[in-house]
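User: Please predict the structure of the protein below. I'd like the answer in structure-token form so I can feed it into my own downstream comparison script.

Assistant: Understood. Taking the following sequence of 122 residues as input:
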Amino acid sequence: QVQLVESGGGTVQAGGSLRLSCAASGYFYSSYCMGWFRQAPGKEREGVAAIDSDGSTTYADSVKGRFTISQDNANNTLYLQMNSLKPEDTAMYYCAADPLWPCSGGYPGNFWGQGTQVTVSS
């Protein structure tokens, strides 16, 4: 069983930065996929960024050049550095993981955290 706990959300003005963290526990195979999703009120959940066990990354077009996904394997922690935030980035952000297979250009979806709220004011 995999457990994911997000932190780091908050309220920031447009143009500001936040760093989200996701503490992971449980068994991860040598190939795995982890990522971040977000869901704004009244909208569908969308993939934001994903990272493979080999460090390969995928980003949604809307966040390319502003967000960076990274991982600290020693501490089993996933990060999302968010810069140049915009009001449209306001959403609940979720960490997700597939502990047994790589992303292969997609996003994980087997295990989810509880979410952390990000609000960007204009």
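That's the full token string. The first strand starts at residue 3 and ends at 7.
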